[in-house]
Write a structure and sequence with these properties.
By secondary structure, this protein is an alpha/beta fold. It has helices at 44-63, 65-80, 102-122, 141-150, 177-184, 212-223, 239-242, 263-268; strands spanning 88-92, 132-135, 153-154, 168-172, 192-196, 226-231, 245-250, 258-261.
C-alpha cells in the first residue's frame, strides 16, 4: 500500500516505532507539482454522497467518547484564555478522500469530519469568506468539489503557512515531520495546534535532504511558548485514526510546561 508523501500512519503500539515512507517518494511537492484535477469533474451524486458521509461522521465524532473528551479540554483551556479568538482554521495533510485504498480513504474522511467539527462546531469558525482552509498535494477533482460544497477553501499558492495567524486553529494529523517543521510551522504562532505528539523531543524522521538543525530550531522556537496537552482517550470507531495526537496551546504565564489530560481528569476539572 502506498501513501502520498505528506502523511504516514501505521497501526502501532509505540510511537517510537513509526514506519516511514520510502526516501524515494518522501519529498515535499513544490507548488508546480501539486496534483491537477481530472478534466472530467466528479458527478453531483458523488459529491452529495460524500457530503452525507462527512455530516454523519461529524455527528458520530461529536457524540463519541473521544470527541467528548476533546470538547471538554477545549472548553477548559478556552476558559483559561478568555481573550482567545478563533477566526480561522487551517488543515494540512488530510490526504485525498478519493484514494483507492479503503483504509486510507476512511481515515481521511474521519479526519476531515473531526477537523470541521472542532473548527466549526466547537470553536465557532465560520465556513464563509475563506476562513476554513485545507492544503495537500494529493487533492484532486473529487476533493475540490467536496470542499467547494462544504465552503472550505483549498490553498495551493500561497501555501497554508501564510494563512496561519495568531487567531488560528491549525490541524495537521500525522503530517510528516519534515513537512511540518520545514514548510508549515516556521514563523507561525497559532492559538491552537493539534498534531502528533513528541514535537518537543523532535522525534521525527527527516527526509534525506532535510536540514535537521533547522528542524530542531523550528521545534524549539514553536515550543518555547506552548503548553502540550496529550489526548489519551481512544476513538472507539478506530483507535488508530487519532492515536498519538496532542494539543499545543499558546502558553499562559502560569502554565505548567506539560499536562496529561484523560477522561477522568476532564470530569474532575
Amino acid at each position: 500500500m502506498s501513501e502520498e508523501p505528506w502523511t504516514t500512519v501505521t497501526p502501532r503500539k509505540s510511537r517510537s516505532k513509526r514506519t516511514h515512507a520510502k526516501p524515494a517518494t518522501a519529498t515535499i511537492a513544490p507548488p508546480t507539482a501539486l496534483s491537477t484535477p481530472s478534466p472530467r469533474p466528479p458527478s453531483p451524486t458523488t459529491t452529495q454522497q460524500l457530503l452525507v458521509t462527512v455530516a454523519t461522521h461529524r455527528t458520530h465524532f461529536a457524540r463519541s467518547a473521544y470527541g467528548a473528551a476533546l470538547a471538554a479540554v477545549l472548553s477548559r483551556e478556552r476558559a483559561r484564555r478568555p481573550g482567545t479568538v478563533f477566526a480561522r482554521a487551517v488543515c494540512v495533510g488530510l490526504g485525498s478522500v478519493a484514494r483507492d485504498e479503503p483504509a486510507l480513504r476512511r481515515r481521511s474522511l474521519w479526519q476531515l469530519a473531526a477537523f470541521l467539527e472542532v473548527a466549526v462546531g466547537m470553536l465557532g469558525v465560520c465556513c464563509s469568506g475563506g476562513d476554513v482552509v485545507v492544503q495537500d498535494p494529493a487533492f484532486g477533482a473529487v476533493d475540490c468539489a467536496l470542499f467547494e460544497a462544504l465552503g472550505v477553501r483549498v490553498v495551493r499558492v500561497p501555501r497554508a503557512r501564510e494563512c496561519v495567524s495568531r487567531e488560528c486553529f491549525l490541524f495537521a494529523p500525522f503530517l510528516e515531520g519534515a513537512v511540518l517543521l520545514e514548510s508549515v510551522l516556521p514563523g507561525t504562532d497559532p492559538a491552537l495546534y493539534i498534531g502528533c505528539e513528541d514535537l518537543a523531543e523532535m522525534k521525527y524522521q527527516p527526509f534525506p535532504e532535510s536540514n535537521v538543525e533547522r528542524m530542531r530550531e523550528v521545534a524549539r522556537e514553536f515550543m518555547a511558548n506552548r503548553t502540550e496537552v496529550k489526548i489519551t482517550e481512544e476513538f472507539e470507531v478506530d483507535k488508530h485514526i487519532f492515536a498519538g495526537l496532542s494539543m499545543y496551546w499558546r502558553s499562559l504565564e502560569d502554565d505548567e510546561s506539560k499536562e496529561t489530560i484523560d477522561d477522568s481528569a476532564n470530569d474532575s476539572s
